[in-house]
Amino acid sequence: GVECLDLYFAATEPDAKGEDVRTVDLKPNGRDILVTDENKDEYLKLYLRYVMLDRCGPQLQQLLVGLFDIIPYEMLMVFDYQELELVLCGIPEIDVNDWEANTQYSIEIATSPVREWFWQIVREFSSEDRARLLQFATGSARVPLQGFKALISYDGQTCPFSLQSIPFSDTAYPRAHTCFNRIDLPLYKSKDQLAQILSLVINLEVTGFTEE
Question: According to its record, what are the GO cellular component terms (predicted)?
Fold first, then answer.
């Protein structure tokens, strides 16, 4: 059993050099209570609470003071942890129909087969590759809580995803402008060529930046 580990309901607090300098009881007289198979679950809960909360309590308190100074406590408390994750990180699944419906195009893309090929390819992508493409284009692999209509630019203003055309050449690759949620696409000659290049770019994590 766990008794052979010679653990007690206590934790050691190291100094900056990593040397044990003091013992902290996880419960009253914890340093004298041996951890056994019967009480190991209690030990784990108390030890994790100490490591994650009690040991850094003052720092966490100051962090909360700063957080609540920006976002009032009352506004945050209406969310559970899953809802808060959605607000902060966005929706994990990517709705391609919503993405397409909230996309703007240059005239060349709008009147080219490349537009249709692009969305066919995105629909054929795995969920992971869709997220990679979104990351390539916007700098984030998550969709805003309100959907693609809520994409924003670097300055916090609403900025729809867009596809712009650039001249085609054998050495031309898609370029991303993450500050503006934009991909510049060469007008490729076939869907297969576009699919091959898009897959290459998103898996190499090549992102283009401009001075715009």
Answer: cytoplasm
Residues 48 and 124 in one domain: no
Predicted pLDDT of residue 44 = 95
Task: Judge if 162 and 117 occupy the same domain.
Answer: yes
- The whole-model pTM stands at 0.60
Query: 4, 56, 159, 179: which is the annotated catalytic residue?
Result: 179
CB 14 within 8 A of CB 20: yes
Q: Are 47 and 25 in contact (CB under 8 A)?
A: no
pLDDT for 212 equals 40
Which pLDDT does position 18 carry in this prediction? 66
The answer to whether 5 touches 35, Cβ cutoff 8 Å, is: yes
Beta strands per DSSP E along 122-212: 161-166, 175-177, 182-186
Annotated active-site residue 159? The verdict is no
pLDDT value of residue 206: 46
In terms of domains, do 59 and 114 share one?
no
H helix runs in 14-165, sequence order:
40-49, 57-70, 73-76, 81-89, 96-101, 107-110, 113-124, 127-138
